[in-house]
Structure formats: structure tokens, C-alpha cells
Description:
The protein has helices spanning 18-31, 69-72, 92-96, 149-154, 157-161, 213-223; strands spanning 7-12, 36-41, 78-82, 86-88, 105-108, 136-140, 172-175, 181-182, 194-196. By secondary structure, the protein is α/β, with parallel strands linked by helices. The protein has a single domain (7-223), classed as Alpha-Beta Complex (Spore Coat Polysaccharide Biosynthesis Protein SpsA, Chain A).
Amino acid sequence: MSLPPTLDIYIGYxxxxxxxxxxxxxxxxxHASRPVRITPIALSTLSGLHGRPRVSQQSTDFSxxxxxxxFLSGYEGWSLFMDCDMLVRADIAELFALADDRFAVMVAQxxxxxxxxxxxxxxQQLPYPKKNWSSVVLFNNARCRxxxxxxxxxxxxxxxxxxxxxxxxxxxxxxxxxxxxxVGEYPANPAAKIAHFTRGxxxxxxxxxxxxxxxxxxxxxxxxxxxxxxx
Length: 231
């Protein structure tokens, strides 16, 4: 498809990982060849749209609110959703260029079993088919009208994350795994375009030495630098 003038990107925002959102945003800007419009999906901004109570199985604030992306986009065009615990290492316009109108969504179709039963901050790691498919999603918004605020508030977690709101898996297009490379689950990959710290990011002491941690800290330094600071 021809790229729109501005690339719409929605990032899940979690109060326990504020720094992750800002560093991811910086890494998007650092590599982008097109203007990007970055919107945090923060629960504090969704009053009246998303009233679903948090449950113990949720590891982030945006476990379910991510599926509001098509609604927030007015069900128009293509939008990208990303978890906040990521680092972009390539031009995100390259990802948007993969958008294919034959599909309602496009995702990296992981097929793995998580190594851990517990992830960062003691959150339970729940294995299920299509695990992590919904952590990077290119939404063809007009074909995702089933994702109304009411549906997102009431559908089961598996119905949402396994894309059961589509007519079938034939509506799910495949993105290269490099666009959602699972750090610590997959071997180190210098060609990863998005490093996904799914087990825990470098901002947690237990994961300070994971793959791409030094790159993340370099991006953090750029995020917090000002003119004349030498960063």
C-alpha cells in the first residue's frame, strides 16, 4: 500500500513501566523516515470508554485496552499497536509498508512455550495458543469494527487475544518475526527490528543484562538529554 502522510502508532501505557513508554517512543522517532503520531493507551484517559475491572491474570494495564485501537482510529486506515516493553531498531515505515488489504490484522505469528511461569513484577506467565501475537498488531481498522468499546469490555481475554472476533484465521496476515523479536525467548538476533522485552525490560534489575539492554540504556540517555548535555 502507499504510506499515509502520518503513521498512527498506539502504545500500551502502564504506570509500572512509565519509562518503557518514553524510551520506545524515542526509539520510534530516532529511526522513522516518516512523521509518526504516537498515542499512549493509558487507562486514566479512557474514562467512559473502558470500564473493565483489572483481574489477577493481567500483567499490564493495557492487556485489554489495546483492542480499542481501531475504535480510537475511527475505524479508518491502518494503525499499529505496540506493547510498551519494546525497542525499535529499524524504520517503522518499513513495517507499515507490509500492510496488506487482504487481511484485517497483521502480526508476528509466534509458536513457542514461555520459559518462565512468572514474569516481571511477579505477574503470572500464562501459556496459550497465539501467545504474544497481540503485542504488535497492524490493524486494518475498517475491518475491525467488531472491536467496539462494549465488546472489549465484555469479551473473554482469550476471545480478544486469539482474534476470535474475526471470521477466521485467514483474516490474520503474517509479519516477519524480526518485527516482534522476543528477547530471552529467542536467541540473540542483531537483525531484530523490534526487540520485545517480554520477560522483563532492562529497567528491572533482574533483566538489566538481557539482549539489547545496552541499546535500551543508550536510548534512555537520548530520551532524557537536553542541548549541551553531551548525550
